[in-house]
Write a structure and sequence with these properties.
22% strand
Length: 433
């Protein structure tokens, strides 16, 4: 039985309302005590966290690991190492691998491969329809037994609304969550930038906000009919957030997340056709971005995710319209969450909430609650998945500073605050800087 004592750290555990100087005592991969040592406790290892924040390990609601099928873009090994460097101990991966995660055997293989890496915990989403083609439903019960925590279509909208209704009815029968990114299958198809004056000036085909809002109207109608629980992924617009606010007020069982890049960037950040700023959904207007920031603060948005999508050079170093969408994010999630909280505290001094605890909550406890996984908490008896970081230390985003095989992010060259000093998984120091 290995024991670990993390001392002198500022413990932030939003799930249990802790925000202050507290020691943490770990034995057998679990949290043994908080505050003072239990009788007879002897630490094999002592970690001095003076001047550092000790929080639950980060929970990322969307990280593409690119296995199976896209190993030339990234591998489980590289991306799980990136997760550890970013303080992420649990991550949810979408089903758009090759082959698609629509068979129990594929899910079991992915879970097994991830387990042998002995890094972060991987929680796959199963495909909602076979091959993500939007026609026939998958065997959700079997996929759940294999380890899926929910069902998604990734970036493939279902054209036939009857199929989506059947899928939601099936999911509701068994209490599964359906994860959907709201996008109309027709409006904005093939678009590469936010429909607006900027896209017109640059001559880029647009994706209008109504692609998101029309899909939301449809999803909410189907939810009323099926009572299925839905998690909405990567909301990008002010209008979409208004609809979600109304749906939550109505009592529909809905949660939502935003990609951490969308919390900071707008369509203006495309600059002179920077392919690193080519993402899905596209960066929208400043008004949309400000609405996302406010909705995170008032709780309309439940969590932030990295939307980690590693892309290789051959697919990214192309003209904007031809470049593959996606940006690396696992190692930026913490820093960009902290930046949101700091910016918001400056802009809204009357809000009076502790920004650091707010930021940590959005990427730990709140995200774990959405995913329905036992993570994001340092309660006694909980798994000792921990992130130790220095919120004041600064680092520069560069290809060499990223462990991910995907080196493309719109934040290249930016200096950010928040450096992960250690990541502990099940009581074991899995990464130390």
């Amino acid at each position: 039985m290995t024991t670990l004592h993390i001392k002198n750290g500022h413990l932030i555990d939003p799930a249990n309302g802790i925000d202050g100087l507290q020691d943490l005592f770990i034995a057998d991969g679990k949290v043994l005590a908080v505050g003072s040592a239990p009788a007879g406790f002897v630490a094999d290892t002592t970690f001095d966290a003076a001047g550092l924040v000790v929080s639950p390990g980060l929970v990322d609601l969307s990280a593409r690991l690119r296995e199976p099928g896209y190993e030339y873009k990234a591998t489980l090994e590289s991306e799980l190492q990136a997760a550890l460097q970013g303080g992420v101990t649990s991550l949810v991966c979408p089903p758009d691998t090759d082959p698609v995660l629509d068979e129990p055997g594929l899910v079991e293989m992915l879970k097994y491969r991830a387990k042998t890496q002995d890094k972060a915990h991987v929680h796959p989403l199963g495909a909602l329809t076979m091959g993500l083609k939007g026609q026939s439903l998958t065997e959700m019960a079997e996929l759940t037994e294999a380890g899926c925590i929910g069902f998604a279509q990734a970036e493939e909208p279902i054209e036939d609304t009857t199929v989506l209704l059947r899928a939601m009815q099936y999911a509701n029968t068994f209490g599964y969550t359906v994860w959907l990114r709201p996008q109309d299958p027709h409006i904005g198809r093939g678009g590469i930038a936010h429909s607006g004056p900027l896209a017109s000036r640059l001559g880029l085909s647009g994706v209008p906000v109504m692609s998101e809002t029309i899909a939301l109207h449809t999803i909410f109608e189907l939810m009323r009919a099926s009572r299925a629980r839905v998690h909405l992924c990567r909301i990008s617009s002010a209008a979409g957030l208004e609809l979600i606010r109304a749906a939550k007020a109505e009592g529909l069982p809905v949660t939502c997340d935003v990609g951490v890049h969308h919390v900071h960037l707008t369509d203006a950040d495309i600059g002179f056709f920077d392919p690193n700023a080519r993402v899905t959904p596209p960066f929208r207007s400043q008004r949309d971005r400000d609405a996302i920031r406010a909705a995170l603060f008032d709780g309309t948005v439940d969590a932030m995710c990295s939307d980690h999508t590693p892309v290789d050079d051959d697919e990214k170093l192309l003209p904007f319209g031809e470049a593959s969408p996606g940006a690396t994010g696992l190692e930026l999630l913490l820093s960009l969450a902290l930046k949101w909280a700091d910016d918001y505290a400056l802009a809204q001094p009357q809000a009076g909430a502790r920004p650091l605890a707010r930021a940590v909550a959005k990427v730990t406890a709140d995200a774990a609650k959405v995913a329905g996984i036992p993570a994001g908490s340092l309660a006694i008896g909980a798994a000792a998945d921990i992130c130790v970081f220095d919120p004041a230390a600064r680092w520069t985003v560069s290809s060499s500073s990223l462990a991910s095989q995907g080196k493309h992010t719109p934040f290249l060259g930016y200096e950010l605050s928040g450096v992960v000093k250690a990541t502990i998984v099940a009581g074991r120091v899995a990464f130390q800087r």
